[in-house]
Write a sequence for this structure.
């Protein structure tokens, strides 16, 4: 059995995690409401916090696809 010790997270990192989660939630709400430009903007905000996050790229690409911005979608989805 592997026992993992949790690293201590300082207040700045907690704020970054919170901002990331908030941006993802906003992007998902906007995608569900078919507000794709707002969704893409929210996922871009998430990427400002975690610049190589595959989840944020995939969701931003999906929103671009639904908006029929196929080139933009491909850029995010094929990384």
């Amino acid at each position: 059995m592997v026992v993992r010790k949790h690293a201590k997270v300082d207040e700045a990192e907690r704020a970054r995690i919170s901002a990331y989660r908030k941006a993802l939630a906003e992007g998902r709400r906007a995608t569900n409401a078919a507000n794709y430009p707002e969704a893409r903007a929210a996922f871009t905000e998430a990427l400002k916090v975690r610049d190589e996050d595959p989840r944020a790229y995939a969701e931003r690409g999906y929103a671009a696809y639904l908006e029929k911005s196929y080139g933009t979608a491909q850029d995010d989805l094929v990384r």
